[in-house]
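Protein modeling request. Please complete all fields; requests missing the sequence field cannot be processed.
Requester role: graduate student
Desired output: 3D structure, token encoding
Chains: 1
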Amino acid sequence: MKNNTLLIWNIALTLLVAFLLVKQLSPAKIADPADMDQTEAAAPMHIVYVNADTLLEKFTEFKSQQEALAAKEQDLDTKLKTRGRSLEQEFNTAQQKIQQGLLTPNQIAAEEQRLMGKQQKLMEDQEKMTKELMAETEALNSKLETRLKNVLRAVRDANGYDFILSYGPGTGVLMVNDSLDVTEQVLVELNAEKGQE
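Delivered output (197 residues):
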């Protein structure tokens, strides 16, 4: 689940960078070179980056939400396993009764039907809980992605950055200059924003 979350964040940050690149370099925004004065044409790009892994590791709200989801997942898993063991014991008990000849053919059919119904219900509950957890995870990731974009936009605007790239495993950025790392600045804003809500 952690790897999936890291992958989702990496994809989200990469998409954000791609969007910003497209938005910045789109033909609608490029002026006629004849109309540009020399200072505009020679203006340097201000590009910085954030370390995606560090953001995920030190973003306190994200960590607490992930821990809560993991605890919920563990709790649901424990409940399902307990129900599964109980059902298994019922199957074993029924099988022993059948082997000992304690059940009539009608009772055997009824018991099989009852146990199959319980097994089906257990599988449906497991699928339902898995879908609920996935939906909750997606909603959390969407909410946190929105917060991250808002903070990145604010940091970009406040400091005049043209691009904020995501750096980490699986991103398209292979090498960076450490002096361009604004991860801590973004983390301060992310973690401070929780108190403002």
